[in-house]
Design brief:
70% of the residues lie in helices and 0% in strands. It is an all-alpha fold.
Amino acid sequence: METPTRVIRNAARSEAARERVLQSALRAIAANGFRGSSLAAIAAEAGLTTAGLLHHFPSKDHLLVAVLAERDRLDGARFQLAGFRGLAVLDRLVELVQHNTMVPGLVQAYTVLMGESVGEDHPARDWFRDRYPRRRANIAAALSAGIESGEIRPDVDCDALAAEIIAMMDGLQVQWVLNPDQVDMAAVFADYIAGVRRAVRVDPDGKAGPGRLRPPRR
């Protein structure tokens, strides 16, 4: 029978090994893409056998879901998305898209997995299904805080605008992955956000653009 100390020690070793695999996979996929990253190479860099890796992640798809979740966590910390409100969150999103151009492998992996996740039994289905409402809610909350502070017009539909922003981000990613020489993802998104800012902000003189208004109530 294992002692409590040994159980704790084994659990700590297991968690450390899982974290090594996750970070190794994050680096490999960022550099080589999903298809160009083998489980054997990821396991070897993490100091494990392929069987050891599969103990923590049952398949390559399960590993990729964990990698994308870790990417979200790191991006949230790097760009402090949760700590910004109002128009400032739009600037952070521009910085995030610019950063994504430097990790094409992760963007490609995200795009591939997003398409595959529509299958009922795909391991990424729940992650993507839960991620979109969370992203919409986070951006909408930041925009709503801008209304409360007086920098964003009170007639802006924050929920609809959040969905539009996410659609622009993900749609541009698909086009950029397919034709990176033809689509300047960072520049197009920055121009789009500049237009959003002009449309929704409250100007010092009280004037504003046409905006993205709430639909009339029936």
